[in-house]
Amino acid sequence: MKGSFKITLDTWSFLVMIQNIFKLFAALGIIVMLSACETPNNAVATADTISAAEAAQDAKLGAAESAANDAKKAAERAQAMAEQNQSALRALNDKIDRMFKTMSRK
């Protein structure tokens, strides 16, 4: 039997292995195609999540700036009131001093 092709066990197992590798590549190709179809949705969802997080961070930053400005204004008002009170106390002290001076003359 010259020229005849004889399939041995080693050849058969090699062919089965090649067939399994093709099946594996086909399955991986399908998985890659399906994941590529889902990627834009995930990218949009990720972009939406990032923009929502940035908006929340901006809102927190805006609230913090507003609170800082309110605190600064309150401190400035308190300082102005303290200066007014000191001025009023000096004026009252001067008035009391004048009153005692006039009383001590009599």
How many H/I helical runs? 1
Q: What portion of residues belong to β-strands?
A: under 5%
Helical residues, percent: over 70%
Mean pLDDT: 78
Secondary structure: number of strands: 0
Question: Strand pairing plus helix content: what structural class?
Answer: mainly alpha
Please tell me what the overall shape is: rod-shaped
What is the H/E order? Answer: H
Q: Which residue ranges are poorly predicted, with pLDDT under 50 across at least 5 consecutive positions?
A: none
Main β-sheet, in a few words? Answer: none
Termini, distance in Å? 154 Å
Task: Give a verbal description of the structure.
- This protein has 106 residues and is an all-alpha fold.
- It has one helix and no strands.
- The protein has one helix at 9-105.
- The mean pLDDT is 78.
Structural key phrases:
mainly alpha; 106 residues; 1 helix
Short description:
This protein is mainly α. The protein is built from 1 helix and no strands.
Would you spell out the secondary-structure blueprint of this structure?
Blueprint: H1 9-105
